[in-house]
C-alpha cells in the first residue's frame, strides 16, 4: 500500500495543475471577450 501512495499523490497533483491551467485559460478568455465587447460598444457612439 505504501508503494502506491506517491503515485496517487502525483496523479492528484497533475489533475489539480491541469484544473488550474484550464480555469486560468477560461478567465483570460472571458476577460479578453469583455475587452473586445467594450471596444465594439464604444465604437458605436
Walk me through what this model shows.
The model has no long low-confidence stretch (mean pLDDT 86). The termini are far apart. The longest helix has 40 residues, at 5-44. This protein is an all-alpha fold and 45 residues long. It has one helix and no strands.
Instruction: List SSEs in N-to-C order.
Output: H
User: What's the N-to-C terminus distance?
Assistant: 67 Å
| Rounded average pLDDT | 86
The value of Rg in angstroms is 20 Å
What are the segments in which pLDDT stays under 50 over at least 5 consecutive residues? none
Q: How would you characterize the largest beta sheet? A: none
Shape: rod-shaped
**Strand coverage percent:** under 5%
Number of DSSP-assigned strands: 0
Total DSSP helices: 1
- Helix % is over 70%
Structural class: mainly alpha
List the helices and strands and how they pair.
Layout: H1 5-44
Give a concise summary.
It is built from 1 helix and no strands. The chain is mostly helical and 45 residues long.
